[in-house]
Amino acid sequence: MTMTRHWIVGPGALGRLIALRLAEEAEVTLIGRRTLPAVQTLITPEQASLVRRVEVARIDALPREAPDVVHLTTKAHGAEAAHGALADHLPAGVPLVLWQNGFGCQPRLSERHAGPVLCASTTEGAHVQDDAQVTHAGHGHTFLGSLDGQHGELAAGLAATLTSAGLPAEAVDDIRVRLWRKLAVNAVINPLVARFRIRNGQLRDRPFRALVETLIAEVATTLSAEGITPPDGKGLAGWRHLVWQVIEATAANRASMLQDVQAGRATEHEAILAPLIAAAEKHRLATPGLTDHLEVLRDRADTLAKPPTAC
């Protein structure tokens, strides 16, 4: 199918990155809870400034003309509410692309949406500067596919569009495995850097290195029980290689969960940690490290949700 009209729902860093890149190839509408400036600037990894004008809208005042495809780029904990606000305004059959971390909302929305659903696993990095500017922090790669292995032609067409727009992508038939692999890396890195407020590269140093190794072992055991293998198929050694490779490649980065903690926003701890812990419990495996980090991050979320004490 021809995909000329794209709705990007969730104008955070990733959403704006996708919108501004796609704006050269298609009609793009950036949709959020509030209206952002129509003129947006993208700072590329090469430090060039790309200025683009996009259509903007609020999720409670959607455009009349239906999209050809909807990209849901909210955080994982907001994805289902955002889809609920959209669903009645979309004709049956409009494809939905899920860009969330973790492995929580994807199966549920794949069942709920009245049309094809693709899941995206991406290593593109971006962060927001202000309401009118976003920085593309580092080039990455995106995999697209559906959890049921269908819609290969749709995935291939969208991958070609993204690639042409400067976001290299490819269609795959094993997106479930790739989502679990990304979740595994995030589950080791993000809770540690968010909890201790450090950059990724500091995980190489004491005392954090030992904590990384503990989480890798828990993740490896759990995913082995789930039948998920690392990219090179070498068990624990493969997971260790994958995680440390990402830490080295992103040493200067502030992970998204750390950025959320520093900004006082809700984090994706449930979407990233809870599926792993649930899988471990299903196989009667202990995950004390993962469970401890989830409890700490849950406590932090509860504290943020409480009203301030009156003076």
UniProtKB/TrEMBL annotation:
Residue ranges annotated for the Ketopantoate reductase N-terminal domain, each copy included: 8-148
InterPro entries named in the record: 6-PGluconate_DH-like_C_sf, 6PGD_dom2, ApbA, Ketopantoate_reductase, KPA_reductase, KPR_N, NAD(P)-bd_dom_sf
Catalytic function, reaction form: (R)-pantoate + NADP(+) = 2-dehydropantoate + NADPH + H(+)
Enzyme category, top tier: oxidoreductase
SUPFAM superfamilies per UniProt: 6-phosphogluconate dehydrogenase C-terminal domain-like (SSF48179), NAD(P)-binding Rossmann-fold domains (SSF51735)
Residue ranges of domain Ketopantoate reductase C-terminal in the record: 174-291
Pfam families per UniProt: ApbA, ApbA_C
GO terms for MF: 2-dehydropantoate 2-reductase activity
UniProt-listed Enzyme Commission number(s): 1.1.1.169
Domain of life of the organism encoding this protein: Bacteria
Keyword vocabulary terms for this entry: NADP, Oxidoreductase, Pantothenate biosynthesis
Pathway(s) it belongs to: Cofactor biosynthesis; (R)-pantothenate biosynthesis; (R)-pantoate from 3-methyl-2-oxobutanoate: step 2/2
Family that this chain belongs to: Belongs to the ketopantoate reductase family.
PANTHER family hit by this protein: 2-DEHYDROPANTOATE 2-REDUCTASE, 2-DEHYDROPANTOATE 2-REDUCTASE-RELATED
General function of this protein: Catalyzes the NADPH-dependent reduction of ketopantoate into pantoic acid.
Protein's name in the database: 2-dehydropantoate 2-reductase
Lineage, broadest ranks: Bacteria, Pseudomonadati, Pseudomonadota, Gammaproteobacteria, Oceanospirillales
